[in-house]
Structures are given as C-alpha cells and as structure tokens.
Design a protein that fits this description.
heterodimer; A: 383 residues; B: 246 residues; 3-stranded antiparallel beta sheet
Chain lengths: 383, 246
C-alpha cells in the first residue's frame, strides 16, 4: 500500500487520507468524533471522495477513542452512499464502544436500494383526479340521501332532533357574521356603483347606476357573496369541529349512546344555515344597494330619493326572491359538504386540516356551479 | 351457573383483503371482568369496535344478551362504552356529558337528572366537578368522567378501551379499584382492552390473548393460570413480562 499524506482538521478528531494500491483511498480517523464536528468531517470526506472517484474506500477507526451517534450516522451514510454508487466501502478497526455504536447504526449492513417511484403521466394524473372527484361527489350524494332519511325521521318524530343546539348555532352562523357580511356587501355595491358610473356617465345615463346595482346585488352578488362568507366562516368551522370530534372518538361515543350524528350534529347545523342565510342575504341586498346609493349621491349628482325611486322602478319582488331561492340552496350545499367532509375525517390533526380545506374548496366550487345553473335556468325560463 | 352475556361465533374482522382476526369464537359471562389482550397492532381495540357495533363483521356473528348484531342509533343503548381518550364532548361540562343520555332516553325531570349525575360523579370520585369542562380536568379524571357517562343509564355491561393508558401508577391503581367496585358492588359485566398486565392480573377473571401472526385467539382463561401454567411459549412470554409485579 502506498501512503500519501492528506490534511488534518483542527478539531477533536484527525482525518488522514491515504492512497491504496489500485486507486483506493483509506480514510484514517483518530481522536473523538463528535456531532459538533460532524459537518466538517462530512463535507471533507464527501468533497475528497467525490472529486477523486476512488476504486474503493476504507474508513479506519482503529485510532478513534470515542464517537457519538450523530457522527457515526453520517459516517455510515457516507459508506452507504459510496456503495450505492458502486464504490466498495468498509469501516474497519472499530473497537470497544466505537464498535458498539457502529453496530447500532448498521455500519455492517448493506444499503437497501430505494425503489425509484414510477413517474405518473399527465393522463394518469387527470384520470386519477377525475375518479377521486367522482368518488367525492358520490360520497356527498350518499350523505345527502342519508340526511334525507334522517330528515324523514325528524319529521315523523320531531322529538328525536337536537333542537337545543339550533339557536346557538344560528347565533354563530348569523349574528356573528353580520359585520363582515355588511362590510363586504356594502363595498361590493360601492365598487359596482363607481365602475358602472364611469361607463354610464358617457351617455348621460347616471340614473341607471341604481338599476344596475340593485338588480346585480339582489339577483346575483348579494346571495353569492353572503354564501362565500358563510362558507369560509361557518362551513370551515363545521368541518373542523366535526372532524376534530371524529378523530377524538366523540362521534363514536355519540353513536354508542344512541345518538345518530346526522340527527344530533348535522341536522341542527343545516337547519341553522337554512334559517339564517336568507336573513343575511336580505341584509346583504340592503347594504349593497346602500353602497351604490352612496356613490350616486356623492359622485353622480343624484338625490337619495331619486336613486331609491329608480331602484324601486327597476326591480320586482321576484328579483329578491330569486336571490332567496339561490341562498336556500347555497345553505344546503354548504351544510352538506362541510358536515360530510367533517364526518369523513381521519388521521389526526393533519386530517382535520385537509378536510377543512377540502370542505371550503368543494363548497366554493359547488356555489359557483349552482349559481351558474340557477342563472341559466332563470334566463331560459325568462323569469 | 353464569350464562354468556356476549357470544362471539366464528368472527372474522378486517378491511378489504386484510384480516386482523379470523374465525374467532369466545363468550363473556355475566358478571365477568373480561380482558382482551395482545401486542400492539393485533386488533384489540378493533375487536372492541366490532363488539360495540361500530364495525360490521366480515364473517361470523356477535350476540349481546341473546340479541343479534348490536345496532347503534336505534333506541336506548344496551351498554356503556369508555373510549381510550375518554371522548368527552368538549363543548359540554362534565355534568352535561353524564346527563346527555339521561335527558335523551328517560323522561326524568331536570332535578332528578341532576341528582343522578351527582351520584354517578360521586361514584367515580368526581364530586363537585359537574360544572368543569373536560379541558379543565386531568387525563385520569376524564377517564373517570367517561366511566360515569357510560354508566348513566345503568347498563349491565360496560366496555373499557385502555382505561389505564397514559395514567400515572397511582391513578391507574385507583381506576382498577373503581372497576372492581363496579363489578363486585353493582354486578356490572366489564369488557376491558388493555396492555397493563399488572392491572389484568389484579382485576380480570377471564381473558383472551390475540395473536397478530396467526390472526387468532391463542389463549383464553384465567390470566393468572395462563401465566403460570400455559404451555404455549408465546402466551408465557407475553404474560410473564410482569410476573414479579403481579
């Protein structure tokens, strides 16, 4: 064996690289190998071995007095990396405590080659995504069916429903959401007023801002924005709440006590949503129109009475009812999706987070889809 | 002679292609403290879920008090269950947790319900805690409250999933004493899933030992006798871990 001097570190250990016959390298380590010095050792060993591309490598630990777990883990990993890349490697000379640590960290084991994951093609990903989506839709529809059965049970025997939770839930879903619903819808009306004013002013048709804001808010934006807010606030809360109950076995406990989760937990939530959403939507309509009114009075030289009379002339009661019909369906969709996602939770805190996110995303998607469906239906029926 | 309260015949449990237990049969006698033992992952808690009706068997049958497959959410429950985590409802006080089943399944006036709640909590050593929320009491107290809740409707059978898990030795011994009191004083049949051999040798009259490899029951009988006399090395190895403590 031909020996050539390598560099030594100014650490608690020394490392010496010695060339071997046939192009191999022997790394002679001495002193104390500690985790604190391990990064320096790791960089040095990898840099030297990587650049030299030796035929074989041997780590000689015969002069190592002690080693800790972190340093040994890195040394063993370096050995495995070399073996995996086809360079024979061995660790020799370990004795006493060093040998025990070496055994503990699998220094004599052969590295297992990790099977390379087969890349998934775009087509396969689209297919898998579609199947997952269809399965989710199937689960929501099955849940809807179970909920209808539970509703039938409640209608037959009203005493079996959990009415007690409905008022506090209505408070949470409705009263607590009033400030944000008012603020968002007022700003929506305000922005719509400004945007339409810019165009209508060109034709001297300032007064029609009232028509545009009133109809858009009551038919479309009021119910939709309210539903989006309720979905983000209460839908997410329902999913997280039921999901947490599921993973902490509270749902199982309820079932063993003879309480069906649909009647006891889902029914009051859906009822609260169904009762409160129309009220929030009417409020949204009112403040949305007020937002447009503010623009009309302050920027378009309209009087308050003129603006309100024009709004009244442009709108029919049916326009408001359209929004209320939509919001009833929105309430059912938010309740169904969020509660179904919550009750389908598994896998601890991470599962709760995943289902809560999924609940909000699915609900938003459903809301937009339902809204588009209703708009088309009302247009086709000329309503 | 005691008659079986629970009769399990040829039970196969699992999901999809995976079976945790195959063709298992056993009986739980009235008034027994019956322990389900086994290593981690052998399906002890899962078996409990089948016994209480939360899962449907792939094969075989479970009869409780002569009645077929336990049906949840239909009528007043025939037994009480204490889950591993206690599973108290966090939005309710301890007293409301215990009162829940009473208000649902009885026509008792509220003051009578309150009296029963206080009595149940006194029985498990939680007098005065009826207005506390589960987040305000310790792990051992939660388990006691869960036992009180499980006993609210005076069941003759109670299932306990890992009652001593995560408890300090003193709380664990106190819980064992409570289970013995309920069994001897009230004649309650107790089915218990646990890892705590020390506790089993102290309170259980009968046990079964599940084996993950063979997916079967490899021993049944008095846990002390099995420990001392079983010829199966696997059974002796499992039960002799705490011989010196028992």
């Amino acid at each position: 064996m031909t020996a050539s001097r390598g560099s030594a570190f100014e650490r608690a250990f020394q490392a010496e690289h010695v060339g071997m016959v046939g192009g191999g390298i022997e790394v002679r380590l001495a002193g104390t190998l500690e985790f604190a010095d391990a990064p320096a050792l790791w960089r040095e060993v990898r840099a030297r071995l990587g650049s030299a591309a030796p035929a074989e490598v041997r780590f000689d630990l015969s002069r190592v007095d002690s080693v800790d777990g972190g340093a040994m883990a890195l040394l063993v990993q370096a050995k495995w990396d070399l073996e995996t890349s086809g360079i024979p490697c061995e660790i020799v000379g370990a004795h006493g405590g060093v040998e025990k640590i070496l055994e503990l960290y699998g220094g004599d084991a052969t590295p297992k080659r990790r099977p390379r994951e087969k890349p998934v093609s775009t087509l396969e990903q689209i297919g898998k995504g579609t199947i997952d989506l269809l399965l989710e839709i199937k689960l929501v529809l099955a849940f809807f069916g179970s909920m209808l059965l539970a509703l039938g049970g409640v209608i037959r025997r009203p005493g079996t429903a959990n009415w007690h939770d409905v008022p506090p839930l209505m408070n949470r879903v409705g009263a607590d959401a009033v400030p944000i619903v008012v603020l968002i819808n007022f700003l929506i009306g305000f922005v719509m007023g400004f945007q339409s004013a810019v165009q209508l002013k060109q034709f001297g048709a300032n007064i029609y801002v009232a028509d545009l804001v009133g109809l858009s808010i009551c038919r479309e934006l009021g119910p939709l924005m309210t539903a989006i807010i309720v979905c983000g606030r209460s839908g997410a809360a329902f999913a997280a709440e039921l999901g947490t109950m599921k993973v902490s076995e509270e749902i199982d406990a309820l079932r063993t006590m003879g309480f069906g989760p649909l009647r006891f937990l889902v029914f009051p939530r859906m009822l609260a949503l169904f009762l409160v959403m129309p009220i929030l939507t009417l409020l949204a309509d009112l403040v949305g129109i007020s937002g447009g009114l503010l623009v009309g009075v302050t920027s378009l030289d309209l009087t308050m009475a003129g603006y309100l009379i024009e709004t009244q002339k442009a709108m029919r009661m049916w326009d408001v009812f359209q929004g209320l019909i939509k919001c009833g369906v929105f309430a059912i969709a938010i309740g169904l999706i969020s509660c179904q996602q919550g009750l389908a939770t598994s896998g601890g805190a991470e599962g709760v987070g995943r289902r809560t996110t999924s609940s909000v995303v699915s609900s938003l998607f459903a809301l937009i889809l339902i809204d588009a469906g209703f708009t088309m239906l009302f247009y086709v029926l000329d309503l | 002679m005691s008659t079986p309260l629970i009769a399990v015949e040829d039970l196969t449990m699992g999901w999809g292609d995976v079976n945790l237990l195959e063709h298992a049969s056993f009986e739980v006698l009235r008034g027994d403290i019956f322990a389900i033992l086994g290593g981690s992952g052998c399906g002890k808690s899962t078996l409990l879920r089948y016994l209480i009706g939360l899962e449907t068997p792939k094969g075989g049958s479970i009869r409780i008090d002569g009645v077929g497959a336990p049906s949840l959410e239909v009528g007043r429950p025939a037994y009480g269950v204490m889950f591993q985590s206690g599973a108290l409802f966090g939005s309710m006080t301890v007293g409301e947790n215990v009162a829940l089943a009473l208000t649902e399944w009885t026509s008792l006036p509220s003051d009578a319900v309150d009296a029963i709640v206080r009595a149940k909590l006194r029985l498990v050593g939680l007098s005065g805690f009826e207005h506390h929320h589960p987040s305000e009491i310790s792990g051992g107290m939660k388990k006691r409250a869960a036992i009180a809740r499980a006993m609210a409707l005076e069941p003759s059978l109670i299932f306990l999933d890992e009652p001593s898990a995560g408890l300090d030795p003193v709380s664990s011994v106190e819980l064992d004493e409570l289970i013995l009191t309920l069994n001897q004083g009230l004649g309650l049949t107790v089915v218990i899933v646990t890892h705590e051999l020390q506790s089993i040798f102290k309170i259980a009259k009968t046990c079964i030992l599940l084996d993950k490899k063979t997916k079967s029951i490899i021993a049944r009988g008095d846990p002390r006798e099995l420990r001392d006399r079983s010829e199966d090395p696997e059974v002796r190895r499992f039960l002799n871990r705490t011989t010196e403590d028992a």
